Amino acid sequence: MSIRGLKKKQPKTFKVRIITVDAEMEFSCEMKWKGKDLFDLVCRALGLRETWFFGLQYTIKGMCTWLKMDKKVLDQEIPKEDPISFHFLAKFYPEKVEEELLQEITQHLFFLQVKKQILDEEIYCSPEATVLLASYAVQAKYGDYDPNFHEPGFLAHDELLPKRVLRQYQLTAEMWEEKITAWYAEHRGIARDEAEMNYLKIAQDLEMYGVNYFPIAQNKNHTDLLLGVDAKGIHIYSINNRFSPNKSFEWSSIRNISCSEKELTIKPLDKKAEVFKFFSSQLKVNKLIFQLCIGNHDLFMRRRKVDSIEIQQMKAQAREEKARKKMENQRLAREKQLREEAERAKEELERRLFQLEDEARQANEALLRSQEAAELLAEKAQIAEEEAKLLAQNAAEAEQERQRLEITALKSKEEKRLMEQKMREAELIAVKLVKESDRRAKEAEHLKQDLHEAREAERKAKQKLLDITRLNYPHMAKYPQHSPGDSRDANFDKGSTKLDLKDIDLKRLSFEIERERLDYLEKSRKFEDRLKELKSEIHALKLEEKQAGLYS
Q: Side by side, which strands form the sheet with 263-268?
């Protein structure tokens, strides 16, 4: 067969892009493939066996639609693009994630999808629960918390909290990181799959978890209700409240669901109960609701039947895998513990070694210091010996000086005694001079008083003489030529001569008194000079005594 013939027999293909929550893949599909063929190819590529939870979703005319498994891919109303994009997502949700999600890849895909729905606020979560969920997400991504490795700011590039929560509380990124890290540190020892499972177990209790909402109306004109489909049944909500349903239909209480154009009818198992009818805006919406109802109802019935052999095998493998992982985790934990203990022992040995090295260094330094101290002490001993010799020589000289000072002190004492005697004699002379001075002063005062009285008597005598002369010889002025008058004048001159002699005696007396006073003053001055000399000599002797005492 020719090469051209082989080429003609190769089927025509088209490209598709499969987008999972965390990756993208491209495949070449044959033109005749049905939706199930493409879906199985993707599941094989992912290693997924729990295929009944998932589907391939695409968007056409603004509406999200699931690829039908029993129809050809190209026969369905899909986007005209190359490659054609499909999102591989969970279409149906389990009632109890811990019992139904057997494979680790299934659990991981659910974890990523639910986490994205919470962050995109498609599922409402309280702020406290979002912080706890974020801590499990961090544990799944980073493993055990290590304060030496996970330094502040290591979550700066991770999206962990919904924007609604960030806007609701005026907290900085550092504060949120501190709150998340506080919970994160509590999860030490939890493996990645356990952390993801704990995340899903918390998320499955949220009111909006696994619910697909559609706007409906009880009549053709008004759309004032929401219809929600999940793993437990069908729920009717008011348009502004997606948390608490106004009415619920459990799958076990529904007898039949029918769809015709825009009308969908729910018939309860109780025939007496009222049949619920509602309308949607488009036929496609009704068909989508109908598909979700059928799929969720089938899973609901499947959970309540005996597991098929495939499911039993998968559960057994899951149990074995869990047991193996548990043992592996225990072994790893034991190895980690032993490694940590070995590291601690190593650190302790290194610390001890460092301590011993430090002690050896200190001992070496102490030895060097001791040697230096010994050398210094030897030098000091030599210096001390030289100082001792010098001190002995100084002591001998001091002894000689002491003896000399003793002799000097004896002489000083004798001189001091003589000086004291001279001072006593000088004091006695001074006392005598003071007494003599007082006596002479008193005598001078008496003499001055006598002189004053003599002069006063002289003045009175002269006055009396003049008065007598005027009374006895009034005509002397008229007869000045008579000789008798000359004789009286002569007598008067004699009296004047006597008075002048008396004045001369007084002057001489005053002169003698003044001379004696000057002599006295001269003697006093000389005596004071002598006293000063004596005081200077005494002061010099005292200084010599003090110096002699210091030398001794």
A: 254-260, 263-268, 276-279
Residue 287 labelled as part of a binding site = yes
Lowest-confidence pick of 206-215, 364-373, 519-528: 519-528
Q: Is residue 505 part of a domain?
A: no
pLDDT, one tens digit per residue, over 20-65 is 988 899 999 999 999 999 999 999 999 999 999 999 999 988 888 9
The answer to whether 70 is a known ligand-binding residue is yes
Question: How many C-beta atoms surround the C-beta of residue 552 within 10 A?
Answer: 12
Q: pTM score, two decimals?
A: 0.61
219 domain-assigned: yes
Specify whether the CB–CB gap between 109 and 193 falls below 8 A: no
- For residues 164 and 244, membership in a common domain is answered with no
Nearest by Cα to 25 from 15, 35, 33: 15
pLDDT band for position 499 (50/70/90)? very low
Distance separating alpha carbons of residues 97 and 498, to the nearest angstrom: 169
Domain span including residue 184: 104-204
What's the CATH number where 171 sits? 1.20.80.10
d(CA 84, CA 157): 31
Rounded Cα distance between 136 and 385, Å, is 83
CA distance 472 to 484: 13
Specify whether 113 is located in the same domain as 79: no
**How many CA atoms does the CB half-sphere of 517 hold within 13 Å?**
13
Residues in the chain: 552
Q: How many domains does the chain have?
A: 4
Q: Tell me whether residue 69 is annotated as binding.
A: yes
For residues 379 and 397, state if they share a domain. yes
- Given a cut of 90, whether residue 200 has pLDDT beyond it is yes
Position 499 in a domain: no
Q: Is residue 99 part of a domain?
A: no
